[in-house]
Amino acid sequence: MSSQTSTKAALITGSTSGIGLAIAEAFAANGYGVVLNGLGDTDDIKAICTRLTTTYKVDVIYHPANMMKPDEIADMMALAQNLFGRLDVLVNNAGVQFVAPVEEFPPEKWDQIIAINLSSAFHTIRLAIPGMADRKWGRIINIASAHGLVASPFKSAYVAAKHGIVGLTKTIALEHARDGVTCNAICPGYVLTGLVQAQIPDQAKSRGISEEDVIQNVLLAAQPTKQFVTVDQVASFALYLASDAAAQINGAILTIDGGWTAQ
């Protein structure tokens, strides 16, 4: 793999599947070199890198950094800098979920969710900012959630982390507003990922209702359009925020949730 120092470069955490992979593909398709990160089968990840490299004629590399470990995050950020000579776009997408009433919420699950969904973004941003500010151009895009704006029961850690991402986004935007660096958050509602799709038959069986009822009355209960957000819609939004056309969008908390948070 050759280093292409003139290529624009994007790093997307949690990008081996779902929203993150769609964002990575969108940037690769638009000429960005890409650093992937996330969980998955080694052969599957190699196949993703090969497909993106071959299809879009850009460098694509994978780093297995554990988002709970600042040292591994620092190593991943250094790899991006070394390979491309720069990092133009940082997308913080890595996230995990656990659902339980607060009094039954395992402390280790709280710590894991805060680390992966919130603290990891701090660690990537603090390392990305100096180079972006020096070059007077950079885009930081944090994938928050409708739960960054409103709450749901039994998701205390996730909701707290996503509200934290919203606050972090605004702060970074203000700190570097004169450096050509923008920081924004995308707040999706329910997105039809492979993970969500796989839950539908099980939900239908356990609740004794049809799969369509699960979609309409369980998963999309809060979404007025009664339609899932697609991964490609989120990816297109991220790509726009990385464009020069979006240079004055900064510190914005942008919903793509079918009207959920308008209620």
Automatic annotation (TrEMBL):
Record's keyword terms, sorted: Oxidoreductase
UniProt KW Lyase keyword: no
Single GO molecular function: 3-hydroxybutyrate dehydrogenase activity
GO BP annotations, alphabetical order: monocarboxylic acid metabolic process
Signal peptide: none
Family annotation (Pfam families): adh_short
InterPro entries: 3-OHbutyrate_DH, NAD(P)-bd_dom_sf, Sc_DH/Rdtase_CS, SDR, SDR_fam
Gene3D superfamilies: NAD(P)-binding Rossmann-like Domain
EC number per UniProt: 1.1.1.175
NCBIfam families: PHB_DH, PRK12429.1
Family per similarity comment: Belongs to the short-chain dehydrogenases/reductases (SDR) family.
Protein name (Swiss-Prot/TrEMBL): D-xylose 1-dehydrogenase
UniProt source species: Candidatus Phycosocius bacilliformis
Gene: bdhA_1
